[in-house]
Design a protein that fits this description.
By secondary structure, the chain is α+β, with helices and mostly antiparallel strands. It is built from six helices and eight strands. The chain has a six-stranded antiparallel beta sheet. The chain has a two-stranded parallel ribbon with strand order 7-8.
Length: about 260
């Protein structure tokens, strides 16, 4: 074959494209198991971070079960259903009607206190944003929050994954004093330090900040039926305990 002909050049280019594509495909297949492992480790790391347990990613598998004691899947009515909370893909669930969505919930327990960790997912300026928010056992007070993004603007919206943005969520409330759901607003121009329902927005990152606000409101709202069910169960348990206590007192009085 005459290597100076255009046909040779085209044939050579086609062969190179095929070879490179095959190599890339093989590499992607071989690397996927490692990528999947890293995704799992990073998710566990972020869940733990929401309750103040900051660890290296490689130790996530060891530390995770020491703090995360339960993983639940909820339906839109707040009832527990079968399924793997950890494997639920919110990007898939969010495409469903709200009444059909399944909700993952992680429960951490240490120092005799439970924390309820809610996964979040929403829209930023350039792509998806996500995170985890942990509530105290009162189901109202924020214990911690972590956020991340796919493609927000560096130095602006991308700053949602920094401590200076995440730390102020601690101690905020999602219900007002009358028990009405309020969520938390990321406020442009700054939030009053005494405002229990707002944090400072990111300068120059208004759309991303608004995305975080919407994400919090929409996702937390989905868990309200579960919160109500849980509170009702706790009230019923308290009533049973009170009845049992009265019965014991009556027995003691009778015995005396």
């Amino acid at each position: 074959m005459d290597v100076n002909k255009n046909s040779y050049t085209f044939l050579f280019a086609i062969l190179m494209v095929i070879v490179v594509a095959a190599l890339l495909s093989t590499a992607a297949i071989q690397l996927k198991p490692f990528q999947d492992v890293n995704i799992v480790l990073e998710k566990k790391q972020n869940i733990l971070s929401s309750v103040g347990v900051n660890i290296l990613r490689d130790s996530a598998n060891i530390i995770y079960p020491k703090y995360i004691k339960d993983e639940l899947v909820l339906n839109s009515a707040g009832n527990i259903v079968e399924g793997s909370a950890f494997d639920l893909d919110l990007s898939v669930e969010l495409k469903k009607e709200k009444s059909e969505q399944l909700l993952p919930l992680f429960i951490s327990e240490f120092d005799n206190e439970k924390k309820y960790i809610i996964p979040l997912r929403g829209k930023g300026l350039w792509g998806p944003i996500w995170g985890f928010i942990a509530l105290e056992s009162d189901l109202n007070t924020v214990f911690g929050a972590v956020f991340d993004h796919k493609a927000e603007t560096p130095g602006l919206g991308a700053e949602i994954n920094q401590d200076f943005f995440q730390d102020p969520f601690q101690g905020k409330n999602i219900f007002d004093i009358d028990g009405n759901f309020k969520s938390i607003v990321v406020k442009k121009g700054g939030a009053d330090k005494d405002d229990k329902y707002a944090v400072d927005g990111i300068s120059g990152g208004t759309i991303t900040s608004d995305g975080v606000t919407d994400m919090l409101s929409e996702r937390l709202n989905m868990y309200l039926p579960y919160f109500e069910n849980l509170k009702s169960d706790l009230r019923n348990n308290d009533s049973v305990l009170n009845i049992d206590t009265l019965a014991i007192n009556d027995i003691n009085l009778t015995y005396e």
